[in-house]
């Protein structure tokens, strides 16, 4: 299953999207209006794409493609979600397509290794709590902002599967709420929480192993 629908997926209604005036102007051929949307979200989308692909050139290409597809499909945007949510959806899909191309024969899915039960709760059939789990303080999400440990954590994030990586990046790096993350990914809040918990535990295990090697 794909990570999410792309340009024309219907999601819960949002009222008062501050980007709508620029979107409507862009639909009418106002290029400066679309350029303003690009300025608003260029760095944010690049940060997300680089977090998923772990490659600067790929991230730049992803962002360019995302904006191109967004502009080409503006008429399909019906305002059922924030424009930024719609744009992030396109960016994440493009990022995962890059990963799939890098991993020939291994189709990537946002649901790989994680399934939702009939109540919408996220469960992971292969998930295990590490036996030797260091009690980290501060937590990995806090460590991400520490300059001296940033490179280490970025490397560890790269070990996460794409379905866990995108949740961690959206929630703990880009600071989207659980609800916003669930809307972006088309998942239930419980599924987002389950994946986020799994990502954090795996990161703690990776970081624990890294520092044990240095001791």
Structural write-up:
A hairpin with a 5-residue loop joins strand 1 and strand 2. The termini are far apart. The protein has 215 residues and is mostly helical. The chain folds into 2 domains: 20-102, RNA polymerase sigma factor, region 2, helix turn helix motif (Rna Polymerase Sigma Factor, Chain: A); 115-214, Winged helix-like DNA-binding domain superfamily/Winged helix DNA-binding domain (Arc Repressor Mutant, subunit A). It has a two-stranded antiparallel ribbon. It contains 9 helices and 2 strands. The chain is globular and about 60 Å long.
Q: Radius of gyration, Cα only, in angstroms?
A: 18 Å
Domain count: the total is 2
Structural class: mainly alpha
In the CATH scheme, what's the topology name of the largest domain?
Arc Repressor Mutant, subunit A
Which CATH top level class of the largest domain fits? Answer: Mainly Alpha
Give the overall shape, derived from the CA principal axes.
globular
Strand tally: 2
Estimated helix fraction: 55-70%
Which CATH architecture of the largest domain?
Orthogonal Bundle
Total of DSSP H or I helical runs spanning 4+ residues: 9
What name goes with the CATH superfamily of the largest domain? Winged helix-like DNA-binding domain superfamily/Winged helix DNA-binding domain
Largest sheet: 2 strands, antiparallel
Element order: H for helix, E for strand? HHHHEEHHHHH
Strand content: under 5%
Average pLDDT score: 76
- Show unreliable segments: 1-14, 105-137
Distance between the termini: 43 Å
Strand order of the largest sheet: 1-2
């Amino acid at each position: 299953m794909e990570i999410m629908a792309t340009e024309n997926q219907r999601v819960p209604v949002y009222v008062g999207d501050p980007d709508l005036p620029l979107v409507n102007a862009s639909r009418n051929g106002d290029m400066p209006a679309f350029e303003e949307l690009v300025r608003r979200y260029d760095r944010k989308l690049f940060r997300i794409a680089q977090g998923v692909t772990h490659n600067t050139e790929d991230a730049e290409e992803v962002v360019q493609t995302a904006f191109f597809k967004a502009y080409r499909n503006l008429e399909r945007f019906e305002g059922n979600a924030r424009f930024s949510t719609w744009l992030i959806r396109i960016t994440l899909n493009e990022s995962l397509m890059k990963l799939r191309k890098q991993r020939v024969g291994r189709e990537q899915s946002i649901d790989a290794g994680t399934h939702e039960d009939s109540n919408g709760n996220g469960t992971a059939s292969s998930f295990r709590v590490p036996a030797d789990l260091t009690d980290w303080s501060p937590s990995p999400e806090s460590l991400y902002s520490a300059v001296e440990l940033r490179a280490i954590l970025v490397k560890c994030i790269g070990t996460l599967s794409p379905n866990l990586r995108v949740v961690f990046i959206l929630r703990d790096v880009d600071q989207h709420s659980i609800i916003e993350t669930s809307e972006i990914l088309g998942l239930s809040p419980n599924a987002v929480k389950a994946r986020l918990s799994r990502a954090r535990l795996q990161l703690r295990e990776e970081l624990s192993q890294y520092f044990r090697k240095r001791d």
